[in-house]
Amino acid sequence: MAERGTAKQKASRKPAMTVHADGLVRCPWPRDDALYLAYHDNEWGVPEYDDRALYEKLVLDGFQAGLSWITILRKRENFRRAFDGFAPERVARYTPAKIEKLMQDAGIVRNRAKIEGAVASARAWTEAMEKDQGFSKLLWDFCDGAPKINRFRSMRQVPAETETSRKMSKELAARGFKFCGPTIVYAFMQAVGMVNDHLVTCHRHAHLAKLGERAR
Length: 216
Known about the structure:
two-stranded parallel ribbon
């Protein structure tokens, strides 16, 4: 989940049910941050099948490693500007000069390994699109094409990784994707709706569960 993976342990010390000023019950991790709440309510856990969008989300989860997700979320528009809208076909062609330019961009996370990892992942994405049936199908086949609907009541029950995330991680790494360890991959799976990890008390759980059932 958002501080997703790494900060689940912190969140587990918070109440499993959080009632906000608008009367809605939410997962505890967005707290009262307006940007975080909007992300929780409108994006996190919504099934995503677009090839390009999945590349963007995987790369941003890689940039989040060692940081909080809200840090990445606040810089997301800067990342999109810097990385040409996360168009993998363009990122795959980045030169060393372009990477050096990105290293000077204060609007993003200036980590050379992560920037180079985004380029390597774009090249792996391009190969998957050319040789397979698409990046989306490659990923969603690990979930049989539909979200897994979990019914957790406490953040303590939410895993940091699963057998599926370990298998997906192994496959991605073998194809040349970077920053795709099983914990990062599980956070990615949560974000793109491959699993519904909203707590059952959260107002988003039931809505996304219906979406998941329709996908089966």
